[in-house]
Amino acid sequence: MRSTLIVAAFCILAVSAIAQSTIPERISYQGRLTDDLGNPVDTTVEITFVIYSSAGGQNDLWKEIHPSVTVTDGLFDVLLGSITPLGTGVFNGNTRYLGLAVGVEPVAYPLSPIVSTAYAYRSGVASSADQAVSANFAQTSNSATTADSSLVSGFSTYADTAWYVPGLTSSGWVDMGTRVVASSPNDSVAIGHLSPDYKLDVRDSKTAIYGRTTGSIYMSGVYGRAEYTGFGVTGTSSDGRGVYGASTTGFGGYFLGEKNYLSAMTGIGTENPDYPLTVNGAIGIQNSGSTQFHMHHTAGGLAFSETGVASYRLFLEDGGDVGIGTSNPTTDFHVAGDAKIDGMLEAGTILTSSIADETGLVTDEYWEWQPMTGSWSTIASRTINAPAPGYVVVLASAEIFLDQDASGGCGLEIGISDIPDSVGIYDDYRVRLPSSADMGSYYRANTIHQVFTVASPGAYTYYFMGKESSDNPVYVSRRTMTCLYIPTAYGGISKSPDGDPGDMILSSDAAPKTDDIDITAELSALKAELARLKQQLGVE
Questions:
Q1: Which residues of 181-209 are buried (b: 16+ CB within 10 A; e: fewer)?
Q2: Domain ranges of the chain
Q3: pLDDT digits (tens, 9 = 90+) for 25-43
Q4: Dist. CA 328–CA 324, nearest whole Å
Q5: Residue 44 forms beta bridges with which residues?
Q6: Which of 118, 312, 361, 383 counts the highest number of beta carbons within 10 A?
Q7: pTM higher than the cut 0.85
């Protein structure tokens, strides 16, 4: 174990006196011993003390080995000079430097300078007040009639235990029994170097300051407090960690206050945040200390879950699809379950003015007059997108104008087809005036419908067709056409064995067979739907 030695106190202690004019040649020294991680140790070690004439460690003036020093919670104290006397020749007015070596380790650098207080030993050469008047270490002559009495003079109440003697130009430590203080408000303490920039300036390549407490809550290993607008604890770093906190079972960091400010980018669970707040993991939302909801990235998207109740209340899939109750949305917006809308659901293709190409429903209206000929021609047409196999119900209506004259009858054939140039032989309807009808113009509104099967999802186009069936003129106006998709539960649609594309039959193996009751029920439902649509369109 490599140990680190930290100087905690250095003072003169009068432990014995041979005569009234003799200064005790011993120094009380207290230090702190830690391991490489900065943790205080409990052990017994050998420590060697050396006093040098220079900071570089040249010319050792005194050396003493303490073979068995007891260290408790990192702290120890020894009496220098108790084994090898110091002697007055060690201190001659020049700065001396103390070095220490623990066990077999070499002397640790930098060395510690021994400042003015230790030179109280110099007063050992002055046995009268007159000599003390000219001494560098006594301010006035009446403060010490002899060198011995200077240890307890009014100017140095703690001179027997402190480095600092009031009145001297240098400052130092004052041992006040239960605490040790730096006596001058201008003093700064440097540990690990010689040029403090702050009141306490500790520098090291390992843990510089270690705080530890075994107290209860709100007790602090390190405590910082700021009045007004200052900072209680400040940590800065050019490329490391300004403030670092770690805990096994407690809090690595704990902040109390009405506000907490974090500048730049903050990472939770990551050391590489890309945004002002970057979280690597889940985020929980609590209510009264209990987590109610949580969100995290999983299954290829961002999931919002009700903790302990249901997952994927809301799921935003990578790429844009949104799922409610599902982690696998198959379209832009996918609801796994029932949906309800209170009010109007508006979209660009579902408004009355543009309900032309909505999946499952299309309609259109034409107002201009169109003359009919003796061949099948298109009165109106619409294309519908069917989302799955099923049925398409087509409704068509027109206002028919028949111009009857004396030459004979007047008539029109109309029908609905899925091809643009003809109507099935049984799918046409006739509107006709007999030749005996009075001459004149006749108007009639007609509505027809047809049901088509669709075999697979896709676009299907249907045609409202008409042709003149007499020599007299026939016109149509106000043509409307509506296509409505209705899904089926009877399975898929397949071609008949002879391959006729116009003859579609139900697959026998695609779904369970149905009986007459099922078909009758469905036809009744279709008729009800057609009646509702006719009423809505205002046709008879």
A1: ebbeeeeeeebeeeeeeeeeebeeeeeee
A2: 4-190, 262-338, 353-537
A3: 788 888 888 888 888 899 9
A4: 10
A5: 70
A6: 118
A7: no
Q: Is residue 415 pLDDT above 80, yes or no?
A: yes
Residue 426, CA distances (Å) to 414, 466, 540 in order: 11, 14, 22
Positive or negative, the CA dihedral 251, 253, 257, 260 is negative
Closest Cα partner for 440 from 476, 477, 401? 401
Any idea which of 222-226, 405-409, 427-431 has the lowest mean pLDDT?
A: 405-409
State which of 24-28, 466-470, 528-532 shows the largest mean pLDDT.
466-470
Q: What phi, psi does 355 have (nearest 5°)?
A: -90, 50
- Distance between CA atoms of residues 435 and 437, nearest Å: 5
Give the DSSP H or E segment for 94.
none
Considering only CA atoms, give the Rg of the chain: 52
CA 124 vs CA 72, 92, 310: distances in Å: 35, 12, 87
CB distance 94 to 111 below 8 Å:
no
Is the Cβ–Cβ distance between 260 and 268 less than 8 Å? no
Per-residue model confidence as pLDDT tens digits over 431-456: 888 877 888 888 888 899 999 999 88
Q: How many CA atoms lie within 13 A of 533 on its CB side?
A: 23
User: Which residue type, as a one-letter code, is found at position 19?
Assistant: A
* Predicted confidence (pLDDT) at residue 166 exceeds the cutoff of 50: no
Strands 458-468 and 361-366: unpaired
- Give the pair of three-digit tokens for residue 203: 């520098």
CATH code of 353-537, in short, is: 2.60.120.760
C-alpha to C-alpha distance for 526 and 518, rounded to whole angstroms: 12
Neighbours of 168 (CB within 10 A): 20
